[in-house]
Every structure is written in C-alpha cells, then in structure tokens.
Design brief:
The chain is an alpha/beta fold and about 350 residues long. It is built from 5 helices and 17 strands.
Length: about 350
C-alpha cells in the first residue's frame, strides 16, 4: 500500500505538503504531529488518498472542500482544536473510520450520521451534551466511543444501529439509558464507568453476546441484575452486590431478578415501571400491565394488530414496540411491573 509520512517534522515545508506530485499515488498519508494549521493543506493534494492521519496538529476546522476526498476510508483528526464538523463531510461515502477524539466539539452534526459506510466513530474527549437522533442511520456502525463528554443520555434511535458491538460512554453525566439500547443483539461490551446512573435497563442481561458490562463508579446505582446461569456476562463494579450474595432458594415468580444494594435505602426504577411487587407475596400485576401483555401477544401472532397500535398514545405505542423488560423465568414481555427479591 503506497504510504507517505512526515510525522514529527514540526512545521514542515508547506510547498512539500501542497505539492500534488508527492500525494498523487499515495493511498496512506501520515501528517501527525506536524504543526499544521487550517490554511496549510490544499485538499486538492489528497484526491487519491484513502487513509489520512492528522493527529495532534493545530486544526480548528475542516474545509468545505473535504467533500472532494471521495476515496477516503479513514480520517484521523485526534488531538486538534476542531469546534465543528462541516456538512460536506456527508459526501465521504466510503468512510469507515472517523476519529475526532480530543477536540472541542459541542455538537455532532447530522452530516456524520449520513456516513452510511461508517463502522467506527470515535468522539471521546469533547464537549458534547447530546447525540443526534439521526445516529440510528449508522446501520453499519460497530464501535461507538463517546467517553469523557457531557452526555446525560443517548437517543433511543440507537436501537437501529444493529451492528453495534462496542459502546463506550465512560465519564459522562449519564443519569439514564434508553431501554432500546439493549435490543442490540451484537453488543459485546458496554462501558459506563464514572457516570450518574441510578438504574440500568432491565433487559441488559438478555443480550446473547454481551460479555462485559462496566458500571464502576456509579455511586447512585441502586441495584444490579442477577445474571442467569447460562449467561457469561461479567459485570464489573466495585459498588454493586454480586450474584454470590443471593439466597439459594427463590420462589418461581414470573418476574425480574433484581438485587438491591443494601447500603442504599431507596430504589429508583426505570420510569416505565409503575408498580413494584416482591417475591414471596401473592402480588398480581395491575390492569394496564395485563392489558399491554395481551395486546403484545396479539401483535406477535396477528400482524394487522401491530399497525393498529400506532393510533395509541405515543408512550403506550412505544412500550409495545419495545417492552420495558422480559421475565427471566418465562421470557414473556413486561411493561409496568417489576419484582424484587426480599
């Protein structure tokens, strides 16, 4: 693979950088640690480049002419001072990897969400307060790294990123996660350390390929979930109880197995739940729970019912499309009721 590199040559000759003869046949160009500023590079010099690395320079923005780099597959912009990304970025239809870690981004533009070929998005160490709902358009995305930002949640549309395998959201300000996140069956690792989480979506332990769930340093997390015996999830947490603390015998209640932290007196459940039942009692789910279960069962067997549910209030329709949780005993969908161990 043709490669051109000038890394570590501080303030190299701009004539050399902008000379088309040096890059006309190069597919990989390394310009890391080169002291480059916004006006230093002529995009026309990189028209044939597929891999462009510009780590730790002095860039504050990308030119609109970035759209000309139609062959680009990887773009590394880590450790610059970029405050925004141009709309023209959406023209990079072959881009697989975008790394803008350690910049000054406050907003992730929708142009990034139009990069249909993107498999790896690295946006850690920025100033992002939210992610766009269009994130769900990244249907080929496998890795999303967004640690050390100012995020309080992630959009529920992430459920459409069906190929997602690794999600890193450490050191944000997350207080909740959408339950829709945990319908992504390919998820292998979810890292949530150092946030403000009070609860986890209850279906997290049902993910077939999830092997690492990291929730360290979430001091307000009130419980973790008991992992089924046939699941290999490793929950990494210094503050939560582990399955070894559970009693050996438990009534066969069709509900969710939740382990409470003994040092926290109050429990914060996901907002979808309206009632809490306890193992060892004869609690019966409420009328709305029973009705939602019945409608959901009809949706599974009669396709025409699903389209009719779109006329329901948005909250109920959303619940029917993506239940709050599933029973760990019978795997039946659950909506408004949760069961706790005594």
């Amino acid at each position: 693979m043709p490669l051109f590199g000038l890394a570590n040559n501080v303030r190299m000759s701009l004539d050399l950088i902008n000379s088309k003869q040096y890059f006309s046949e190069q597919s990989v160009v390394l310009l890391n640690y080169a002291g480059l500023e916004d006006n230093d590079i002529n995009v026309d010099s990189f028209l044939h480049v597929e891999y462009l690395y510009l780590k730790r320079n002095l860039l504050t923005q990308l030119p609109q002419s970035i759209a000309k780099l139609c062959r680009l597959k990887e773009l590394l912009l880590e450790s610059n001072s970029i405050e925004c990304l141009p709309d023209e970025l959406s023209s990079l239809v072959f881009l697989h990897v975008l790394n803008v870690n350690s910049n000054l981004l406050t907003l992730l533009p929708t142009s990034v969400c139009q990069l249909a070929s993107l498999t790896k998005l690295q946006i850690s160490d920025n100033r992002l307060t939210q992610l766009p709902s269009d994130l769900g358009k990244l249907v080929n995305l496998e890795i999303l790294e967004a640690s050390r930002n100012l995020l309080t949640t992630v959009p529920k549309e992430i459920m459409f990123c069906k190929c997602l395998k690794l999600l890193a959201l450490d050191r944000n300000k997350l207080v909740r996660l959408p339950r829709q996140l945990f319908v992504l069956s390919d998820l292998n690792e979810v890292s949530l350390a150092g946030n403000n989480l009070q609860y986890l979506p209850l279906d997290v332990v049902r993910l077939p390929r999830l092997r690492h769930l990291i929730v360290d340093d979430n001091v307000d997390l009130h419980y973790i979930l008991e992992v089924p015996d046939d699941n290999n999830i490793l929950i990494i947490s210094k503050t939560a109880l582990h399955a070894s603390n559970l009693t050996a015998e438990r009534p066969a209640v069709h509900g969710l197995h939740i382990v409470l932290r003994r040092d926290l007196p109050h429990v914060v459940l996901p907002p979808e739940f309206q009632e809490v039942c306890q193992y060892g009692t004869h609690s019966v789910p409420g009328l709305q729970e029973l009705a939602l279960r019945a409608v959901f069962d009809l949706m599974e067997t009669q396709p025409g019912v699903r389209s009719s549910c779109k006329d329901l209030p948005a909250e109920l329709s959303d619940l029917l499309q993506c239940p709050s949780a599933h029973c760990h005993v019978c795997a039946r969908a659950m909506f408004r009721s949760a069961f706790f161990a005594a």
